[in-house]
Amino acid sequence: MKVLDRFVNETDEKKILKKSAILNSIAGVISSTFVSILLMVITRTGSIELAGIFSIASVIAYQCLTIGSFATYNVQASDLKREFHFNDYAGIRVISIFLMMCLLLFYSFCSGYDLNKAWIVFSFGLFKMSDIVDDLFRAEYHRNHRLDVASFILVGRYLIAIALFSFIFILSKNLLFTSLLSGFILMFFTLWIHRKYLVYFVKERIMPRFSKIFDLGQILLPLTISNYIRMYVVNIPKYTIDLYLSTEIQTYYSILVMPAMIINLLAEIIFAPFIPRLAEYWEFDTLLFNKMIVRQLLMILGITGCTVAGGWIIGLDLLSLAYSVDLSSYMVPLFFLLSAGGFNAASLFMSLVLTVQRKQKATVVIYFIITVIALMISKSVVLNFGIMGASFIYLLICGMNFIGFLLIVMIEINKKLRG
Predict the structure, then answer these.
(1) What are the CA-CA distances from residue 126 to residues 138, 171, 182 (Å)?
(2) Which of 251, 312, 349, 390 lies most in the core, judged by the most C-beta atoms within 10 Å?
């Protein structure tokens, strides 16, 4: 802990900013590849069937995390006027964790799974529970301009989680036991590390104020609904495979969709630093605002093109080698999924643009419309075309997301130019 002590006691602002940028990027990379690393461990040392169960368990866990986190991090980290105290945020997290537990129980035991699969799904949700607790403390460090400390702890937690889960699974070959034991250890570590360092940032302890928690809930509920729908809509192909196809097909699809995340990761690293400038241009220079949007979209297109080309040439060979499965017959689904990754990265950028334009509520409408369309066609397409059908549905969802967001952005730009 001596390294972390040095981080906490650092006072040089330039060093803090530099460490924050580096460690936050590392944390983003590990976060984006976390599930794929664990899936790789399971496919190579376990079985395809277990990997398929793990795939849907991870989808459900992250779906439930949208309720558990309750979209609190960004609001808490940006609450520099201290409108809400740390314990107000902690209070709403207690409520959100209760709601998450209810949702997790519903997904696990009311989805028609056999008892073994239901317990595995539930246990992996518990494994990810410590993420919500960690999120609360890290947001407080970030609010105190110490993103370096928050990111350092996050990187450490992810590395410990990967090592713990992998080691216990390799020894036991039991996903239920692995999730429960590693989840318990990780929760203990999370509470211990934050109890040790929170005192550096929260000097005054105020009891949670119910009126403030209610106010917070009103602010966060629309954002939470949007996050929940967004997470659900992009995972409709996985849910459909879970309902109608085998766990082996779920494993293959989950492996094939992993490279699409590389596009999202690279795109986010590129456009994230420009968000403040984008907001400034929207206020004072619409022409530069438009040029920046075009430039960022072209960069995402370039990244997507390179990734698709690489995937077409060596993608299947690398994935087959990494996960120890034969994927040689899935070139077209990989092409669909990589293309969808480009649309998804572009739609994530456009959602940021809509946030700058203060039209983020429109994203909920778009997500809802796309969810209805996807649910109407996904069953027949997946049943008739298998993985290719699921991959096409994912491409369709991401493409519609981007087009919907782009249209709203263009309408807002046109309104501003006319007004």
Answers:
(1) 20, 21, 10
(2) 390
Rg (Cα) of the chain, in Å, rounded?
22
Task: Give the whole-angstrom CA distance, residue 139 versus residue 77.
Answer: 5
Domain that holds residue 84: 1-234
Q: What is the pLDDT of residues 96-108, one digit of tens each?
A: 999 999 999 999 9
pTM score of the predicted model:
0.90
Q: For residue 239, is it within any domain? A: no
Burial of 156 (0-12, 13-18, 19+ CB in 10 A): middle
Q: Which of 188, 214, 234 is the last residue of a domain?
A: 234
Q: How far is 149 from 388, CA to CA, in rounded Å?
A: 43
Domain shared by 112 and 53, yes or no: yes
Number of domains in the chain: 2
Q: Measure the CA–CA gap between 242 and 267, rounded to whole angstroms.
A: 30
Give the whole-angstrom CA distance, residue 293 versus residue 298: 9
Q: What is the mean pLDDT of residues 271-286?
A: 72
